[in-house]
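We modelled the chain as a single entity of 387 amino acids. Its sequence is:
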Amino acid sequence: MSAMFSHCTPITSDKATSLSSSFYGHNLRRSAQLPGKFFSTISVSSPASSPAFRSRIACQISSSSSAATSPPSSSVNVQAKSGQKDFLHINDFDKATILKILDQAAEIKALLKSGDRTFLPFKGKTMAMIFAKPSMRTRVSFETGFSLLGGHAIYLGPDDIQMGKREETRDVARVLSRYNDIIMARVFAHQDILDLAKYATVPVVNGLTDFNHPCQIMADALTIIEHIGHLEGTKVVYVGDGNNIVHSWLLLASVIPFHFVCACPKGFEPDEQTAEKARKAGISKIEITNDPKEAVRGADVVYSDVWASMGQKEEAAFRRQVFKGFQVDENLMKLAGPKAYFMHCLPAERGVEVTDEVVEAPNSIVFPQAENRMHAQNAIMLHLFGL
């Protein structure tokens, strides 16, 4: 592989405009590594205009094209699997790796925003997308993102496989591994994603389980960096059900230092073991409270999600009664302060967990947050491929 890059010279960032986002002392201007070379800092406004940037991408395209000509084999896949991680939980990775992935997400986002479509690291690769749970954002962000970087994604809906019912998960994993280079799955039971990863010989990405949603939180972290300038040291207050989103925030807080508060009704707290694990990590300040008004004071971000997730809709009426007082409205945002941003992983039930005025307010960043799903996921997959 190194021979392919012998003609590529190191790229400097003298003429590039640096990204302003940083994790206190860890700035997004830090180079992100690609095969054999380093990404230099890119300009958010017009990255493709830099000759250095184009030269760097040309080197990467050369690598991608050469790799695409090599036929896959099951033995190669098994060896690769033994030496790489899947993306199942955020805390499977250390701080440096998470920061590297987020750096790369920012760079690839800037490239795509410039209109440049010459960076095709996924050329010749296919992704199987398993959906036990349907989703607009997860499907479109993965499928579009993979396609924009040169790959082909295959959608497998709830009735296409019926994983664990019509066919055992371990068989699905081994069959799809022989057809595809990567598997993404959005499922109910967390054990399903663990079983897929255990038996697959290609990387497996957790697109959501009932326990956690790591891709969403990576997109959220990228969004906070873009708007606040850093994640480290911020106060993120989640208001609502202690669900899979909260679990992923807790797992991130066990790696990256920030202040995380979950304000939820009694009886709807997040998994106790997950919360305790985050506390014992000693990285972040973790609070679980039943008082949303007190929780949001001084928040940098107020975060909400639906009160009844998919699979809980029969509880919706009951939950609306229990969750009274936990709606994010203009009054609650005022308590947070004028600089607090509002975030929501969507879809939102406007008028239930959040009011229409809050979603449409100038400090609402729910749509940049949704867009960043694609960019964060692209970077995750680049990392899993070793790119």
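As a brief sanity check on the tokenised model: The longest helix spans residues 95-113. The chain has 15 helices and 13 strands.
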